[in-house]
């Protein structure tokens, strides 16, 4: 995987993977290993600094960054989205529309039992597990896992890995965002203080600008510190603002 920022473009507001002429360049890629990364973590996460500001609209809006203390409890219903395979060995077919799947959070003990090797469980504290019947699949890596919590959509995880796709005894494994919140604030302190105005978690006004420092998780998902607004009907079907 290239770490050269000039090799990437960020396309926002797209529902298909056909590239539009409207994109932002990437100024910087920040790997998890930069201090102060969480100790003993797998670190399957990164930040991307945009080279140009983002224009917000009903179709381009940040998901909420959870508090480090947020609890996405077992059984909680969440959504994962992406353009990856729709089944094992079946790539997404034209017109390449964004896909979504509802999954529920799995407790760590159950997930650890599903992924136990001769050296013990390979599930780390910074991993969160969820299963469907829907699931993330090949080429969905880096995609967002979002959950409704406290009246807003919050990003609970980032698609990381799994064995197969949609197997009942093999949950999908995600990077647990709450473990990295302090690391994110270290690199983007504006998210943790009053210097940056908090954003409502619902689309209100088009033409609003965000500066280029706003973070992206690996998938290209905008994240911001948000007010707790009412949750949308579905993460991929936003409602109109008042």
From TrEMBL:
- Spell out the InterPro entries in the cross-references: Peptidase_S1_PA (IPR009003), Peptidase_S1_PA_chymotrypsin (IPR043504), Peptidase_S1A (IPR001314), Trypsin_dom (IPR001254)
Q: Residues in domain Peptidase S1?
A: 1-189
UniProt organism field: Nannospalax galili
SMART domains per the UniProt record, alphabetical: Tryp_SPc
What Pfam families does the database record attribute to this sequence?
Answer: Trypsin (PF00089)
Give the keywords, sorted: Disulfide bond, Glycoprotein, Hydrolase, Membrane, Protease, Serine protease, Signal, Transmembrane, Transmembrane helix, Zymogen
Biological process terms from the Gene Ontology for this record are: proteolysis
Q: Which residues form the signal peptide?
A: none
> Which segments cross the bilayer?
204-228
Q: Which GO terms fall under molecular function for this chain's record? A: serine-type endopeptidase activity
Under which name does UniProt file this protein?
Answer: Tryptase gamma 1
């Amino acid at each position: 995987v290239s770490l050269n920022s000039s090799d990437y473009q960020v396309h926002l507001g797209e529902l298909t993977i056909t590239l539009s002429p409207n994109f932002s360049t990437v100024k910087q890629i920040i790997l998890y290993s930069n201090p102060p990364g969480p100790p003993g973590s797998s670190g399957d996460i990164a930040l991307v600094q945009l080279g140009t500001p983002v224009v917000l609209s009903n179709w381009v809006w940040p998901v909420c960054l959870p508090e480090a203390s947020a609890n996405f409890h077992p059984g909680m219903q969440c959504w994962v989205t992406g353009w990856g395979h729709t089944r094992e060995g079946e790539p997404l077919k034209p017109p390449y529309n964004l896909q979504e799947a509802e999954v529920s959070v799995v407790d760590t003990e159950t997930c650890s039992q599903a992924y136990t090797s001769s050296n013990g469980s390979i599930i780390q504290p910074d991993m969160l597990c969820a299963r469907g019947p829907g699931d993330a699949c090949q080429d969905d890596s880096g995609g967002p896992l979002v959950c409704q919590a406290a009246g807003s959509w919050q990003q609970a995880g980032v698609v990381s890995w799994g064995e197969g796709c949609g197997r009942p005894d093999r949950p999908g494994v995600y990077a647990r965002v709450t473990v990295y919140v302090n690391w994110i604030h270290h690199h983007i302190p504006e998210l943790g203080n009053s210097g940056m105005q908090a954003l409502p978690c619902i689309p209100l006004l088009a033409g609003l600008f965000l500066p280029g420092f706003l973070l992206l998780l690996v998938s290209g998902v905008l994240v911001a510190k948000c007010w707790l607004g009412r949750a949308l009907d579905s993460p991929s079907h936003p409602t109109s603002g008042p």
